[in-house]
């Protein structure tokens, strides 16, 4: 398959300029988009599962292939640029992808969440020491909330969707054992 080098370069420049990526990183994303588009097309032709029937599910399906080729989860801003859509539409596509392909992309979702989180020590000795986890994107907040649910920690956690913030205890009981919550999430403690 032939790719017009000028059009590829324009796409790299667009991702670098609008997405704040270095040129080399933007080139890797563009190449993953191209390879993912081919994978998506072959998946539609050769697949035996259900075919996406709405624009959102189709884009989520295509995005899943891009993430697999890229080896990481794309950011919400990258989705906005890739598909030239609003932040709300990008969030919807990412949420659909999470719901549909979470098992296959689980480690990528967790890696993206871990790279996006800012951890702040909060709470008091009297009321209980906590960690406040802040995220820059809704998708990484959602990944953290999903992981807290999987660990059975929702009842001891407090989430604020609009602020993309979660407050968790520093230690909680998981599988009948006291466990460091950040360790269970795979998130590093902040440096003092």
Key structural traits:
2 domains; 16% strand; 192 residues; two-stranded antiparallel ribbon; elongated
Assembly category: single chain
Q: What is the structural class?
A: alpha+beta
Number of strands: 6
Q: Radius of gyration from the CA trace? A: 19 Å
Portion of residues in helices?
Answer: 55-70%
Outline type: elongated
Mean pLDDT: 91
Low-confidence residue ranges: none
Beta-strand fraction estimate: 15-25%
Summed up, the helix count is 7
Distance between the termini: 52 Å
Strand order of the largest sheet: 1-2-4-3
Number of domains: 2
Mind summarizing the main beta sheet? 4 strands, antiparallel
What string, H for helix and E for strand, traces the elements in order? HHHHHEEHEEEEH
Question: What does this protein look like?
Answer:
The chain is α+β, with helices and mostly antiparallel strands and 192 residues long. It has two domains: 5-103, no CATH class; 117-185, no CATH class. It has helices spanning 5-19, 23-46, 55-70, 76-83, 87-116, 138-150, 181-185; strands at residues 118-124, 128-134, 158-160, 165-169, 171-174, 177-180. It has a four-stranded antiparallel sheet, covered by helices on one side. Strands 5-6 form a two-stranded antiparallel sheet. Helix 1 runs antiparallel to helix 4 (76-83).
What's the short version?
The chain has helices spanning 5-19, 23-46, 55-70, 76-83, 87-116, 138-150, 181-185; strands at 118-124, 128-134, 158-160, 165-169, 171-174, 177-180. It is of the alpha+beta class and 192 residues long. Strands 1-2-4-3 form a four-stranded antiparallel beta sheet, with helices on one face. A two-stranded antiparallel ribbon has the order 5-6.
């Amino acid at each position: 398959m032939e790719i017009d080098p000028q059009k590829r370069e324009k796409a790299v420049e667009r991702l670098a300029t609008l997405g704040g990526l270095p040129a080399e990183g933007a080139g890797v994303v563009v190449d993953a988009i191209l390879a993912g588009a081919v994978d998506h097309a072959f998946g539609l032709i050769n697949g035996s599962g259900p075919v996406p029937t709405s624009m959102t599910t189709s884009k989520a399906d295509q995005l899943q292939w891009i993430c697999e080729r890229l080896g990481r989860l794309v950011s919400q801003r990258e989705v906005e640029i890739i598909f030239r859509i609003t932040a709300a539409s990008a969030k919807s596509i990412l949420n659909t992808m999470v719901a549909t392909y979470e098992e296959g992309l689980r480690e990528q979702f967790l890696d993206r969440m871990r790279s996006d989180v800012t951890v702040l020590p909060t709470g008091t000795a009297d009321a209980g020491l906590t960690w406040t986890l802040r995220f820059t994107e809704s998708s990484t907040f959602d990944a953290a909330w999903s992981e807290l649910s999987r660990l059975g920690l929702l009842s001891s956690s407090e989430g604020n969707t609009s602020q993309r913030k979660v407050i968790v205890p520093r230690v909680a009981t998981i599988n009948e054992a006291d466990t460091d919550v950040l360790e269970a999430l795979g998130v590093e403690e902040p440096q003092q």
